[in-house]
Amino acid sequence: MRIIIFDFDNCLVPGNAVGENVLHPLFTLLENNENHLSAEQFAEMKADFWRKPLDYIAEKFKFSEKSTQAGLAYFRQLEAKGSIKGYADSQLVNTMPGTKYVVTSGFEKFQRSKIAAAGLRDAFKDVFYDDPGEPPRKGKAFYFDIVARTENVSPEDIWVIGDSAESEIAAGNSLGMRTVQILRPGITKSDNARYHVTSLTEFQELMEHNA
Q: Which GO molecular function, any one, fits this protein according to its record (predicted)?
């Protein structure tokens, strides 16, 4: 049976699918706290929140302890409400053959609610959360290894698909898994993935071709 590990944000749904207004209160807090950031840096920081985890952003922009704690408190209580819209092909994951997992970097409450709001939870055998609010971070390779041991298969038999060259693609490569970078809008192609696709339809065709 085919085994697939999916990233979630910017792979199955856009990172900002919940609506960018959900982070406006946090941005106001940070604007008040982080006066050392230029307008350009602050704009870059806000954009990063839709693609990178809080701990990465806090380190990159040298957040004060006050801002870091404000960010942690904000994300720990955050939850997606109602339904959210994925990419045009997102629902394909529900019918795609195979044993499917999600490994996602983000706060568990928020990520769990987004997966449910996107109508995708039942597609997966299990979901693992690499939660910045629960240090120390284990990293995605830790959870990928759990999947391999749970399924009792060689890493080479596992497909890993996601957008981030530095996160899931690097983690999959480190374990010898078949890595696929999905080139969603705004994603820069990286040479470190074994394969590249632009949609889940292409991904399914790739797996069938390499069965």
A: metal ion binding
